[in-house]
Amino acid sequence: MNRDAASAPLRIAMISYYLPSESKIGVGYQVHELADELARRGHHVDVFSPCAPVEGALYGHVHLPMTGSLRTFRFAFVMRRQDLSSYDVLHAHGEDYWMWRRRVPMHVRTLHGSCFEEAIHIRGLGQKLRMIMLGFTEVLASIVADRTVLISPQTRRWTPWVRTVIPNGVDAARFAPDGTPRSSRPTILFVGTWRQRKRGSELARIFSEEVRPRVPDARLRMVTQDAPSTLPEGVEALGRLSDAELAHEYRTAWVFCLPSSYEGFGIPYAEAMTAGVPVVATPNVGARYVTDRGRYGVVAELDELGGELRALLTDAAWRERLSTASLERAKEFDLRSVADRYEHVYRGGDDVDEFGQR
């Protein structure tokens, strides 16, 4: 490829069932951030989604509304009928598994974790079966695409033939420390859902039973929209926050804790690290990767979580060491670096591992 071709703006079509305008699923936030960054670089980006446009987005939006049951599967058929011939790149974050016929010069698929892995941990037979069905579509998609990308090397368990690993990215300008002081009270921050695999309810219970009695002025601030109206003393549900409000919560927290049973990556872990907040997590694929198996954070079983949180809240020197480690590890997840790696893939570059090496 000549130099001019290697730097020319691309026309990129992205597929995402989720966007932040209507969904709190992390994939949607990552698609939005990546599309914005690529648009800032001069590429023309359109996101095809059943979700409404995101206010202030720098990229284009093709609205394909869906209603009724089995929407994700039906969205895949809708995408199959779209005319993408004007684009240089199709970058799918889901629902491209029926797109066998070549439509663009480069078809890229990002697998945001593994539905097979999630099926192991999710509750309910119906949900497990749904995840298994989606797992097979991920395998099919990895065969359909020209290049498939994993968000962590640990997710390779279910698609061992995929070699390219590019982590999710975080906008350092938004979350990095800006001089805002930490809260005057010992503060744990949680970002996720009260129910299901994020286990917000379990964290609230552990905080109430094991942390608060030993650290009476501690508080747990939960960025969640499905918490019950009555919460234990010291626990606050914040609902949905703006980007600026979320960044402020990270910057003022003493510790971040997300005790998920499963994460393919776990964007909040990386956001917390970017803000220099010590991360405490339970063992899952994403937490092990983002913390590098506990080198840059604390990974503990659920029944050990209370003790680890108490220790961190009462040991300033340990918090400072983990804060420094968090900032160092966060460099690997800088959104600009992630966009660089995707541009390399879009233009047919060599396989890229989790640290951008070829």
Automatic annotation (TrEMBL):
E.C. number: 2.4.-.-
Q: Does the keyword ATP-binding apply?
A: no
| Annotated PANTHER family | GLYCOSYLTRANSFERASE
The entry's protein name is: Glycosyltransferase family 4 protein
Q: Which Gene3D superfamilies does the UniProt record give?
A: Glycogen Phosphorylase B
**Origin: domain of life:** Bacteria
What's the source species' lineage?
A: Bacteria, Bacillati, Actinomycetota, Actinomycetes, Micrococcales
Cited InterPro entries: Glyco_trans_4-like_N
Report the residue ranges that make up the Glycosyltransferase subfamily 4-like N-terminal domain in this protein: 26-174
* Keyword terms, alphabetized: Glycosyltransferase, Transferase
User: Tell me, what is one Gene Ontology molecular-function annotation carried by this entry?
Assistant: glycosyltransferase activity
